[in-house]
Amino acid sequence: MMNLWTFNKKILLLVLILFVLPLLIVAFSSLSKIGKVGITVNVAPSTAKLYVDARKVSPGDVYVRSGHHRLEAKLDGFNAYSKEFDTDNSPKKVVYDVLLSPKNTYGQSILDDNPKLQQERENMGGAKFSQNSQALNVKYPFLKDLPLEGQRFTVNYGDAVESKIKDGDVAIALYVSVTDPSEKRNAIRSITEQLGVEPSDIEIIFTDYFNPITVKGNNESSN
């Protein structure tokens, strides 16, 4: 009789471990997400330590309350990452891809000795480049018409210098090269007429001479 009771207790314990305990874990996890907003955090190299509001988290889905937060990533030999962000009750989940770069020979040696970690960085870097390219083409549809070439000038694009770039946004500048300073205004005119871009709406950088729109007085004639 005692052996049968002992056997039944073992069966009951096994049922609790296999069925009841997982259900309790799922229920607790669901309750802990109530009133919180989900974000997804990816990091490369994956051995980096991630923190949200100084609380250590794992890569993947992280749940925080609506409001202001700080995301940090650290790994010996790599430049630290820190970003402040705000969350609301929007159903759209925000994804943060954290790409750490080596800051010294020790960090580079980690990548050299671990091809898997190096591949993680390359994969994330390629994905971010593709996303940025898509964002650029949407925001600046005239990119398909560049480079724009005139008889004595060429217009292309590059990184913005003075433009303020908001979080998650992408900004560029038009770079103009002219062989003759008299062609500066023709280049501006072509930007407006052929690209459909108002000079006041984008940063224009003359690589050889001053911008005739921003330069006043005798400076223009001397350049």
Query: What is the SS-derived class?
Result: alpha+beta
For the record, the CATH architecture of the largest domain stands as Sandwich
Radius of gyration: 28 Å
Number of helices: 4
Number of strands: 11
Tell me, what's the shape?
Answer: elongated
Q: Which strand order spans the largest sheet, edge to edge or round the barrel?
A: 3-2-5-6
CATH superfamily of the largest domain: Carboxypeptidase-like, regulatory domain
First-residue to last-residue Cα separation: 106 Å
Give your account of this protein's structure:
The chain contains four helices and eleven strands. It is α+β, with helices and mostly antiparallel strands and 223 residues long. The chain folds into three domains: 1-32; 34-135, Carboxypeptidase-like, regulatory domain (Immunoglobulin-like); 142-219, no CATH class. Strand 10 (172-178), helix 4 (184-193) and strand 11 form a beta-alpha-beta unit. The longest helix has 31 residues, at 2-32. It is elongated, with a radius of gyration of 28 Å. It starts with a helix and ends in a 17-residue tail after the last strand.
